[in-house]
Task: inverse folding
């Protein structure tokens, strides 16, 4: 576990807490779009959940905001290199779009313009660019753009074409990766200084230190609960073999190709806690550290 003071803006906690400050998030968007007049209409929402139906996959957006022109921004910091980011951005786009019209609205032109921004410390497309901007275009005529109001931007802190983007953007992307005080303090970029001021305040805050620890503990608990749920089906089979099929732990171990010690421990827990669910028994197994 990193200390709060060691986090960079690519670490989710620091990114979310910094972007939760309207002045900081506004400064980031102004740098990305090169527009000092861009103003946020509403404070950013971090960890915003969008779900179209209880049984369908939901999304949790890093940072969601709307500017004075009613354009919607979803800004994501993606530290780990994953191969599904392009289609993930498509899915995010579709779920954001699905929430933009009131029931019964017949005019689809009422939809807000949207921009999905993914900031990464790796080059997703392999062309050495700091910025990749995608809009819908016609295959037969590349000059013909489909003005549907949707933009997806991928930013790469390891770009190699500084002559094609603004110095403010390259400096910000370097700061995202290092979050180095000297870089910000020696910069002529006032927006970067503004962002760094809020980052410094977060890192120096005792309250934020406590919140960071709580977030970390919640993450560990969630991971343990997920592992217990994943093992619950195995516990169900063992329970069935011992209680209903009347096999001994040794017979069950041989049948399921599991360690006898593990089966015996499960059998002991099932007898000791007859009212507990399979998930609860699985959690006890994990806590005991008994190997299958």
Result:
């Amino acid at each position: 576990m990193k200390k709060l003071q060691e986090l960079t803006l690519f670490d989710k906690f620091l990114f979310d807490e910094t972007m939760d400050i309207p002045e900081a998030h506004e400064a980031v968007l102004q740098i990305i779009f090169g527009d000092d007049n861009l103003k946020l209409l509403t404070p950013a929402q971090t960890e915003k959940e969008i779900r179209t139906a209880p049984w369908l996959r939901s999304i949790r957006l890093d940072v969601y905001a709307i500017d004075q022109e009613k354009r919607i921004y979803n800004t994501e910091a993606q530290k780990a290199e994953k191969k599904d980011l392009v289609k993930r951005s498509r899915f995010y786009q579709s779920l954001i779009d699905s929430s933009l019209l009131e029931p019964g609205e017949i005019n689809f032109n009422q939809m807000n313009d949207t921009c999905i921004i993914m900031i990464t410390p790796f080059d997703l497309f392999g062309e050495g660019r700091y910025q990749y901007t995608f809009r819908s275009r016609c295959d037969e005529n590349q000059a013909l753009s489909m003005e549907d109001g949707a933009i997806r931007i991928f930013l790469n802190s390891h770009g190699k074409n500084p002559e094609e983007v603004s110095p403010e953007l390259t400096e910000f992307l370097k700061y995202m990766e290092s979050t180095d005080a000297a870089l910000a303090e020696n910069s002529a970029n006032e927006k970067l200084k503004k962002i760094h001021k809020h980052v410094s305040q977060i890192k120096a805050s005792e309250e934020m230190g406590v919140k960071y620890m709580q977030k970390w503990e919640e993450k560990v608990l969630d991971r343990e609960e997920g592992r217990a749920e994943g093992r619950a089906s195995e516990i169900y089979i063992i329970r069935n073999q011992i209680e209903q099929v009347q096999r001994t732990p040794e017979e069950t171990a041989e049948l399921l190709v599991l360690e006898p010690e593990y089966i015996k421990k499960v059998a002991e827990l099932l007898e000791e806690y007859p009212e507990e669910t399979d998930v609860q028994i699985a959690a006890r197994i994990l806590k005991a550290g008994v190997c299958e």
Q: What stands out?
A: The mean pLDDT is 86. The longest helix spans residues 206-244. The beta strands are 45-50, 59-66, 72-77, 114-120, 131-134, 150-156. The two ends are 28 Å apart (CA to CA).
